Inverse folding.
C-alpha cells in the first residue's frame, strides 16, 4: 500500500477549481501520463521530483503522477523567491522538476548556480511516453520532502514516508469519517503539511476536493462566497485565515450551512477570535489540531459545543493521536509530573525519518528513550493536565509561528545580513493581540553606509517568503550586547 | 486630490513604514514589489480607504496595477468618489 494507490481506491474522487471540474477518470489519465513520462526519463523508486506549480488540478495530478512513478515529491512555493526554491531543489537532488513555463528561465539559472541540472518538465507539453505500470512502493519509501525554515538560514527538508502519511490518514479517517458526499477545501499551499489531509483524505474516500488558489485564498469575500457556493463540508486552514474570513469576509451575506467540520492547525487560535467565528458559524464541529511537519498532526482537541473556556486564552492541543505516543520531559530528558511544563516528545508511526542529508540535525531532533524508541523532540513546551490532555505553553528556541508558518528568526537574520550595507541584524518576535506575533528586525549599517526602511523591506521581500518578511525594521547604531558579548535579544524585545 | 494623497501617505508611513524618513516615500515608490503592501496590509488599507472616503471597491478595482504606488492609489480612490 502506498499513497499513490489511494487514487485507485475510489472512483468518485473529484477535483474542482475555479469552476472547472476534473473527474476521477481524468485525474487518473493525467497522472498516468505524468508517471509514464517520468519513468521514461529514468525517474523511479528512491528518486525525488520537484514541484513548483501554483495550485491547480494539474498540480494534484502531478503529485499522484510522481508517486505512481515510485518517486517522492518535493513541493516548493511558487510565490516565494526563485532562489529559495532552487536551493531546496538542489539540496534535495531532484531528478526532475515540474514547473510552469513562466518560471522556467529563472529556475534554470538559479539551479545552475546550485550546480544541479534536473530535467525541467512543463505539463502543457509533456513528451509522449510508452505506458508503464505504477511502481509499487513500500511503507518505508519516501513519499514527500517538505522544507521548513532553518535556524541558520538554510531551509531543512523533512523526509516523510508513505507509512508516515498513511498512519496520519488512518487517524483522519477514523476521526472525521468522511464519505463520498463530502466536499473538502484545500486552502493550504501544497508545500505546507496541511495539504496532506486536503489532498489525500478526499482521494481515499472518493469525496470532492475544492482547490483554493493562491489569490482566492487571500481574498476573504470571495473565499466566503466559495465556501457557500461550493457547499464545502470540511474546512481546514490556519486560524489566521479563519480570522480573516470572520473579520473581512462578510460572512453574514453567505450561507455556509453545509459546513460540518472546521479544522484548524499551525498556530494558537486566540479565544476572542474563535468566539467571534463561532457566533457567525454556530453549526460545525471545531477541531484544534496540533503537530509539527515532522509528525503531521499528532495531538487533537475536539472543541465541545458551548466550550469557550471563560478565563482561558486558547484551547488545549488535546490528546495524542493513536497509535502515536507522547511524553513531556525536562531539559535532561526525564519525565515531568502531570501539571509541570516540559518539552513535548512524540514517538510512533507518524514521526519523520529525519532531515534530508542533515545527520547532525536529525540526531539532535531525537531522544532515544530507555525503551529504545526514537522520540521526536518537538521543541514545544506543554503542560499535561488533566492526564492525557496537553496545553501549549511556548517554545524552547527561536522559532515562531506566523500565519501558521514556521519562521526561524535566524533565517530572517541570515537573509538580511546578505544586504551589502548591513553590518549586523537581529530579529525578535513580540506577541500581538491581532496577528498573533509581530516580527521586528533591528539593523545596524556598515560604517559610512545608510539605508532606508523601504530598501530593507524590498530586500527582505526579494529574499524571503512573504510570511517571513518582518513587520517592522528599526535601524540602530549598534546592537546591544550582554556581558558575555552576545546580542541582547531581551533588551531588543523591550524596545521592539 | 491632495487630501487623498495625504491620507494615503499618512496611513502608509504610520502603519506600514513606521520609522521611515517621510522624504523616502514618493508618489512613485513601488508598493507591491517592495513588499510594503502584502496581502494582509492591502486588505487593511482597502478597508480603511472604504471607510475613510465612504466608497466601496469591486474585486476588479484591486488589481496590482491600481495598488502599485501612491499615485495609482490616488487615481483609484478619485475614480470612486
Amino acid at each position: 500500500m502506498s499513497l499513490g494507490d489511494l487514487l485507485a481506491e475510489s472512483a468518485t474522487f473529484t477535483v474542482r477549481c475555479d469552476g472547472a471540474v476534473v473527474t476521477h477518470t481524468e485525474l487518473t489519465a493525467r497522472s498516468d501520463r505524468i508517471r509514464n513520462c517520468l519513468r521514461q526519463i529514468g525517474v523511479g523508486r528512491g528518486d525525488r521530483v520537484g514541484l513548483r506549480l501554483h495550485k491547480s488540478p494539474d498540480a494534484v495530478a502531478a503529485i499522484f503522477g510522481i508517486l505512481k512513478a515510485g518517486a517522492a515529491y518535493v513541493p516548493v512555493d511558487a510565490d516565494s523567491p526563485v532562489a529559495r526554491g532552487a536551493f531546496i531543489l538542489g539540496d534535495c537532488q531532484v531528478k526532475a522538476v515540474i514547473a510552469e513555463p513562466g518560471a522556467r528561465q529563472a529556475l534554470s539559472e538559479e539551479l545552475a548556480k546550485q550546480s544541479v541540472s534536473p530535467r525541467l518538465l512543463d505539463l502543457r507539453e509533456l513528451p509522449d511516453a510508452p505506458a508503464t505500470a505504477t511502481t509499487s512502493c513500500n511503507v518505508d519509501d519516501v513519499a514527500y520532502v517538505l522544507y521548513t525554515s532553518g535556524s541558520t538560514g538554510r531551509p531543512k527538508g523533512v523526509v516523510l514516508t508513505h507509512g508516515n502519511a498513511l498512519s496520519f490518514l488512518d487517524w483522519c479517517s477514523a476521526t472525521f469519517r468522511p464519505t463520498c458526499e463530502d466536499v473538502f477545501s484545500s486552502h493550504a499551499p501544497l508545500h505546507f503539511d496541511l495539504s496532506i489531509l486536503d489532498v489525500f483524505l478526499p482521494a481515499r474516500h472518493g469525496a470532492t476536493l475544492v482547490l483554493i488558489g493562491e489569490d482566492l485564498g487571500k481574498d476573504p469575500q470571495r473565499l466566503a462566497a466559495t465556501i457557500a457556493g461550493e457547499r464545502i463540508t470540511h474546512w481546514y486552514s490556519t486560524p489566521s485565515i479563519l480570522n480573516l474570513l470572520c473579520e473581512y469576509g462578510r460572512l453574514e451575506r453567505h450561507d455556509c450551512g453545509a459546513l460540518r467540520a472546521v479544522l484548524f492547525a499551525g498556530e494558537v487560535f486566540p479565544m476572542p477570535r474563535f468566539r467571534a467565528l463561532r457566533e457567525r458559524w454556530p453549526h460545525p464541529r471545531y477541531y484544534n489540531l496540533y503537530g509539527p511537519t515532522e509528525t503531521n498532526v499528532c495531538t487533537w482537541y475536539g472543541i465541545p459545543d458551548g466550550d469557550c473556556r471563560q478565563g482561558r486564552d486558547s484551547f488545549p492541543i488535546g490528546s495524542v493521536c493513536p497509535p502515536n505516543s507522547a511524553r513531556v520531559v525536562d531539559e535532561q530528558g526525564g519525565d515531568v509530573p502531570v501539571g509541570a511544563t516540559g518539552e513535548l516528545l512524540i514517538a510512533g508511526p507518524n514521526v519523520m525519518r529525519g532531515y534530508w542529508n542533515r545527520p547532525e540535525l536529525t540526531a539532535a531532533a531525537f531522544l532515544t528513550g530507555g525503551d529504545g524508541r526514537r522520540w521526536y523532540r518537538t521543541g514545544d513546551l506543554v503542560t499535561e493536565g488533566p492526564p492525557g490532555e496537553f496545553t501549549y505553553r511556548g517554545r524552547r528556541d527561536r522559532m515562531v509561528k506566523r500565519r501558521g508558518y514556521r519562521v526561524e528568526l535566524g533565517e530572517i537574520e541570515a537573509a538580511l545580513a546578505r544586504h551589502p550595507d548591513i553590518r549586523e541584524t537581529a530579529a525578535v518576535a513580540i506577541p500581538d493581540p491581532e496577528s498573533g506575533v509581530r516580527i521586528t528586525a533591528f539593523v545596524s549599517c556598515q560604517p559610512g553606509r545608510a539605508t532606508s526602511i523601504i530598501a530593507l523591506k524590498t530586500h527582505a521581500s526579494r529574499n524571503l517568503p512573504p510570511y517571513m518578511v518582518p513587520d517592522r525594521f528599526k535601524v540602530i547604531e549598534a546592537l546591544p550586547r550582554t556581558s558575555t558579548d552576545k546580542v541582547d535579544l531581551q533588551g531588543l524585545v523591550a524596545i521592539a | 486630490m491632495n487630501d487623498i494623497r495625504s491620507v494615503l501617505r499618512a496611513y502608509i508611513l504610520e502603519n506600514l513604514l513606521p520609522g521611515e524618513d517621510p522624504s523616502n516615500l514618493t508618489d512613485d515608490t513601488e508598493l507591491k514589489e517592495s513588499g510594503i503592501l502584502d496581502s494582509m496590509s492591502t486588505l487593511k488599507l482597502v478597508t480603511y480607504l472604504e471607510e475613510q472616503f465612504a466608497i466601496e471597491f469591486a474585486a476588479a478595482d484591486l488589481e496590482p496595477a491600481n495598488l502599485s504606488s501612491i499615485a495609482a492609489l490616488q487615481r483609484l480612490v478619485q475614480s470612486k468618489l
